[in-house]
Amino acid sequence: MNKDITIIRSPVCNLSSLGWLKVFKEYYFKIIGLDIREFLSIYKHVDFFYIIPSVKEKQKLQETFLTLIEKHKVKWLILGVEEEIKLLLEIENDINNLGAKFFHPPLETMKIITDKYSLFKKLSNKVLLPDTFKLSEIKDFNVINNYSGFILKPTKGRGSTGVKYISSLKELSDFECDKYDYIVQSYIIGDEYSVDVLFDMNGHLLNAIPRKRILVESGISIITETIKDYDLIELCKEIGRELFFRGCLNFQFIKKNDLYYLIDINPRFGGGSIISFYSSRSFRKNLISLLTCKNKFTINFNDVKPIRMERYFLEEFIGFKK
Question: Band of the pLDDT at 158, cuts 50, 70, 90?
């Protein structure tokens, strides 16, 4: 029984959280669900639910977490919003002093992987990445005229928020920056892949589960399939040697001409990462061992079972009676 181990999961009122809430409940963890809005149907999936301030209210958000961590004797923070993770990592010592730990990389790593240009500079000599430039630093657009298209991304952003496809050099040169500071990346046409990676608290890679993203909506996998691909696993090992990670993360790639290009690192469970829990026995055992602080791990990168996950919406009617 793991009821003496309490997990804060935030946010919980979204498509990708429900699968993990079911797993935590199946393994008898105590779940504190948090979100900035209320869904009445979420109460049956958590032990306690609280509405919390948004990341725009930094101090209030930090104080709310400290209060809840102390009140419920929380052991783990498993979060889903990069801005929230970074704000709370600023007070990691205070959180640790209350007995709680982050299931996320430390702040120094977060600063690199949530700044897309810093990530490019850090890994450009280790793995393939799309050609990347800061839009504000491009003096002559003709130097990038050999690309079939461009992807504009906020230098600091989450998921697909603010991402734009630009089809021509003229359109790019005419683009007027809005509230974001943008990078420009060469547009690569290929198949999308994700790898769900699990690290222990000392930065050692325990699992890497590759999967193909077949249908994606709003940045979240709706249909995905796990695969065995040792090239992707080796790339993840290389990335893990360059940056200090802990907990579960999601690396995203595009495959073109049998080559993989890293396009993003998510410092959290990916939108479709729940499939890896069911695809790999060692992933399952290692994750639960981490959360229960037993730290007895099985290193097996070969036990990925190819399975397929499909998602769909199911309505719930509250207050309706036949």
Answer: low
In this structure, are residues 172 and 166 in contact, taking their beta carbons and an 8 Å threshold?
yes
Architecture of domain 6-102: 3-Layer(aba) Sandwich (3.40)
Q: How far apart are CA 318 and CA 289, in angstroms?
A: 37
Please tell me the distance from the alpha carbon of residue 132 to that of residue 118, in angstroms, as a whole number: 10
130-146 as b/e, with b when 16 or more CB fall inside 10 Å? Answer: bbbbebeeeeeeeeeee
d(CA 30, CA 78): 13
What is the Cα–Cα distance from 54 to 37, expressed in whole angstroms?
10
> Please, which residues bridge with residue 7 across strands?
31, 76
Q: What pTM did the predictor assign?
A: 0.92
Give the chain's mean pLDDT.
91
Mean pLDDT value of segment 315-322: 83
* Mean pLDDT, residues 95-107 taken together: 98
Structure tokens at 306: 């190819």
Buried/exposed 88-109: b ≥16 CB within 10 Å, e otherwise: bbeebeebeeeebbbbbbeeeb
212-231 per-position pLDDT tens digit: 999 988 778 899 999 999 99
CA-CA distance, 193 to 114, in Å (whole number)? 19
* pLDDT of res. 150: 83
Q: How many CB atoms lie within 10 A of CB 255?
A: 17
Enumerate the β-bridge partners of residue 32. 8, 48
Q: Regarding the domain delimited by 189-310, which CATH topology (the fold level of the hierarchy) does it fall under?
A: D-amino Acid Aminotransferase; Chain A, domain 1 (3.30.470)
